[in-house]
Amino acid sequence: xxxxxxxxxxxxDDTSASVLIDGLLAxxxxxxxxxxxxxxxxxxELASRVHQQNIVPVVSEALRRAGVDKSELSAIAYTRGxxxxxxLHVGTSFAKGMAMGLQIPLIDVNHxxxxxxxxxxxxxxxxxxxxxxYLCLLISGGNSQLVLVKSAEExxxxxxxxxxxxxxxFDKCAKVMGLPYPGGPHIDRLAQEGDASRxxxxxxxxxxxxxxFSGLKTSFLYxxxxxxxxxxxxxxxxxxxxxxxxxxxxxxxLLDKLKKAIHQTGVRQVAIGGxxxxxxxxxxxxxxxxxxxxxxxxxxxxxxTTDNAAMVAIAGSFKYKNKEFSELGLxxxxxxxx
Length: 338
Ligand code: KG4
Description:
The protein is 42% helix and 18% strand. It is α/β, with parallel strands linked by helices. It folds into two domains: 4-126 and 304-321, 2-Layer Sandwich (Nucleotidyltransferase, domain 5), CATH 3.30.420.40; 134-302, ATPase, nucleotide binding domain (Nucleotidyltransferase, domain 5, 2-Layer Sandwich), CATH 3.30.420. The protein has a five-stranded mixed sheet with strand order 3-2-1-4-5, with helices on both faces. Strands 8-7-6-9-10 form a five-stranded mixed sheet, with helices on both faces. Helix 8 links the parallel strand 9 and strand 10 (296-298). The structure holds 5'-O-[(R)-(carboxyoxy)(hydroxy)phosphoryl]adenosine (KG4). Residues 12, 140-142, 167, 170-171, 182-185, 188, 274-276, 278-279, 306-307 line the site of 5'-O-[(R)-(carboxyoxy)(hydroxy)phosphoryl]adenosine.
């Protein structure tokens, strides 16, 4: 019998469903929510309402594209947390109801494990996947962590941010530049035309493998404030240079600790994951660093960097093999690390 797993993701502002058939990706449907753009950030109450509207059509479409009937499903994997509670409740309740109705196992997935294990998503039989152990630089809107991935079940956070996440640094600085939310992709695009050496922003001096991005944010704000005093058009004239200099500083901060972590752990494989791993500068810099260090780099396809249910389904498939199923009474959780 085929192993068919339905994955459901609803932790933030993307409703996604995906089907895995015998470990191969058969569909991955994502409905993004544009409603938040006008507010410059995700509005939790709106997010959960839109999830409610999207969840049934998104799951139906994922099954249709995979050519699978719901009666053929082996299990349902869903994101239990971390994320926005209201949003998580929609996916969690839907997954529970569907699993109960079909009388099939339910599998809860930690969203961060999903990002870390996204490298195991195979679209064809010949796609290569990492070997354990590997180091994962997990960089998103809510997290910046260095994770030592010993197995699909055993992950150790060896470094993490003590304040803002890398994605927040991108988004908050982009916001003060007047760019739309989320600002990361806009900074990425602008940075390609800018001079990264034009502005210098402060870098943190944090011991060990931990990160900090709040000082960079303050130094970015001071640069804008000081220059806007004399020139009201400063941001407009320097958009590309500001974006390139900001991106370069974020990359330097990320890679400094990544390099340290490679040396400390002696691990021979490095992966990146999370929304910020879609950044072209980050991708190139990690590839260059890995080449220099003689370690293998795993750079995910862009569609698997931001929130998606394929990563939930793949993380669920590891648990399915171990028969690690969850109880119907298990509540979602808002906060937790790996
Ligand atoms: O993992 P993700 O989709 O969501 C959560 O954190 O839940 O990550 C979203 C983050 C946002 O901060 C967004 O600005 C950032 O990923 N991001 C990027 C790029 N694409 C998305 N940051 C920099 N460059 C990009 N190309």
